[in-house]
Write a structure and sequence with these properties.
single chain, alpha+beta, three-stranded antiparallel sheet, 15 helices, 8 strands, elongated
């Protein structure tokens, strides 16, 4: 059984540590190549830190190593948490590549290897790479400058065919002081500095690169960010939490808190209805959202509305999906001549990878059309 096949076994610390010795230079090339890939699949975050130590020009398996570092997960997913240990060695290797191409005395990297090095920078795209990438793309005497320009275009998310190096240079002169700053996300002052930088940087690209810095942070100060949603830089805090939710970096408790606090519902009467044609009151479920829920904010929900009895929620078999990024409200839920309409709404999230799936959190709203204020949710305890 190959090491790569072993990597398909259930991941564990023991499995990772059993494969780890096979990356050492004392092993054969084939064994090391399999170990690179196996480690990356078993435990991506620590593996990238270990493998980055081999990012040197004299590494005999440099190209397979870089390709292993750029590997997606088993299901084609890209990592949402990047190891900051990759940044320094990757940048040093790229600078060495560029120097070799410019020098008559230093053997250049092969074309394929240069492409892999640039590909590695694109996968990580830390802001510290940008000065060198801009320099590389603008050096017409370097044979790979056009390829570097294409990678820089992709790194910055510029639409293909609209890359303008002069414009990129002008943008970087403004963004450099913000993106090159060292933010200490573990301290309240450091977090405030980042929130202020995001809020005052109105350029979308600068904001996106600022948010990308969090992809290198193992610990997210979720409580502090929730508190910041009610502070001076609330827009910045909400945008960051939305991005972290999209990247599956938020805990279930924080996701529940965001829904409970910023997703409001109420039952209201449609006062524009023609009572001569429709004497019964038309009652609508409406919502108020004060958070930029991402596309990944998919939940389940169950509802019941009644004007002649107490609402009762049926079993989970009657539930349906709801994406908070694209809510389906408002909608008519009842017609009542003289009685108020009452409603029950439950929204919950399940562990998508569990078998069977288990509920992570659940919220309930108790609504009444005679009380048209937006109702508050309460947490439902999970057995």
């Amino acid at each position: 059984m190959t090491l790569f096949m072993i990597s398909r076994l259930p991941c564990s610390k023991e499995l990772y540590e059993s494969v780890l010795p096979y990356v050492e230079v004392t092993r054969s090339g084939e064994i090391r190549r399999q170990a690179f890939r196996a480690l990356k699949i078993i435990e991506p975050y620590p593996a990238t830190g270990v493998l980055s130590n081999f990012l040197r020009r004299d590494e005999p398996e440099l190209q397979p190593l870089i390709r292993a570092l750029c590997m997606p997960g088993l299901y084609g997913e890209r990592p949402s948490l990047l190891n900051i240990a990759m940044v320094g060695p990757s940048l040093s290797l790229a600078e060495m590549n560029l120097t070799a191409e410019r020098s008559a005395s230093v053997p250049p990297f092969s074309g394929d290897l240069t492409g892999d090095v640039l590909g590695l920078l694109t996968e990580i795209y830390h802001p510290s790479f940008l000065p060198m990438m801009i320099e590389w793309a603008g050096d017409e005497n370097v044979r790979s400058s056009r390829y570097a320009g294409g990678r820089l275009e992709r790194m910055l998310g510029i639409e293909h065919g609209k890359f303008d190096l002069t414009g990129v240079r002008a943008w970087w002169r403004k963004a450099d002081p913000v993106l090159s700053r060292a933010y200490d996300f573990s301290s309240p002052n450091g977090l405030d500095d980042w929130l202020k930088a995001w809020a005052t940087s109105e350029d979308p690209l600068t904001r996106r690169m600022l948010s990308h810095l969090w992809d290198f942070q193992q610990i997210i100060p979720e409580i502090s960010l929730l508190e910041a949603c009610e502070g001076t830089y609330s827009t910045a805090a909400k945008a960051l939490l939305s991005d972290l939710w999209e990247k599956k970096r938020l805990s279930p408790g924080t996701r529940m808190s965001l829904v409970k606090t910023y997703f409001k519902m109420r039952l209201v009467e449609d006062t524009t209805a023609d009572l001569a044609r429709a004497p019964a009151k038309s009652i609508w479920l409406k919502y108020d959202v004060q958070f930029p829920f991402p596309e990944a904010a998919s939940v389940s929900w169950n509802t019941d509305f009644a004007n002649n009895r107490e609402p009762v929620l049926r079993g989970v078999d009657s539930a349906s999906g709801l994406n908070l990024h694209y809510p389906i409200f408002p909608r008519e839920v009842s017609r009542s001549a003289d009685r108020p309409t009452k409603g029950l709404v439950e929204i919950w999230e399940c562990d998508a990878l569990g078998s069977p799936q288990r509920e992570l959190w659940k919220l309930r709203w108790e609504l009444d059309s005679s009380k048209p204020n937006f109702g508050s949710a309460r947490e439902v305890k999970i057995p």
